[in-house]
Amino acid sequence: MDKKPDFKHDNQWLKDLPLTKNASGFTAEQMINCEKCSRQNAPNRLNCMYCGEALPISAENEANINPRLRKLEPWEKGFNIIILPNGLIYDDTKYFEVANLLRIEADGLQKIVETNKALPIARCDTVYTAEKVSEGLMKSSVSVKILSDEDLRIETPTRRLRSIEILPDRLKLRLFNVEETHEILLEDLALIVVGAIFERKISAVERYSKKDENKTLQSNELSNDEPIIDIYSRTDGIGYRIFTSGFDFSCVGEKKSLLAVENIKLLQQVLREIGKNTKFNDSYAKVRHALGQVWETEETKDSKGLKGSAFGSFNVENITTINNLQQFTKYSRLQLQLL
Predict the structure, then answer these.
(1) Which residues are CB-contacts of 260 (< 8 A; sequence separation ≥ 6)?
(2) Alpha helix positions (H), 63-221
(3) Full-model pTM
(4) Fewer Cβ close by (within 10 Å): the C or N end of the chain?
């Protein structure tokens, strides 16, 4: 077979290419050094692209900053942008404009807007990013408020109640599994939030083999929902929580039922009647799917270990638990921040 001759490019054509008037990208003088790893970054970045450290922002570079929204891990603390209903009419153009700014799907944004409630529309890793995104939203006539996870105090669990004693001028609250009581004057009763905790447990046994033919052998799913009530005073940002299980409903009086589900409904009515100047919120059930666009439900996966099987394969049993406890807590405390 004859060998093909080597082909050499004629570089003459390079001389005919038009020259750009302005160089693309950033000059060496414009680059920013990371204070942690000493590597150079573009001046329109907020965090180092190598180590993630926050970069120093100069006044001359601030206009070039392009905030990048990313999905935060469940363990990361963040800053929440809350949309506030202001009567703004959204059409397809407006939905696309705002969704493009937030880097989300227009359908997801529409679910949030159509609730006509104050809900989170974005979650940011830094307060600077939250402020820059909020500025863009306000230019589009969208009213927003920034709340940090610190504001919502999500790391502090809501105090669970064992019972309530209703006195003429106050509520006497007995904590669950603790010999401790607190009191709230009726005039200080600020907010009551009604909701429910939904939990799904999925147990699955999977077979793994050397042939990479993994197979689910068995799968079971259990679901449970439990109504709850959160109570807040004007001087407390943590609140008290009533579950149907483990609560003494004697405070509802002679109307007390044998069913805890009926009793917690009666308790809602009682609290409404005694707290005439208290805000009552029972909209969680209506907005929780829209709420999940930003504040997702928690999902944990636990393994019960390996189990021997046929030659060359083994079984693994996993239990996946999905619940909305933290999501509801954020929503509940958001209502307190909005008072």
Answers:
(1) 244, 245, 247, 249
(2) 92-102, 106-113, 127-139, 149-152
(3) 0.79
(4) N
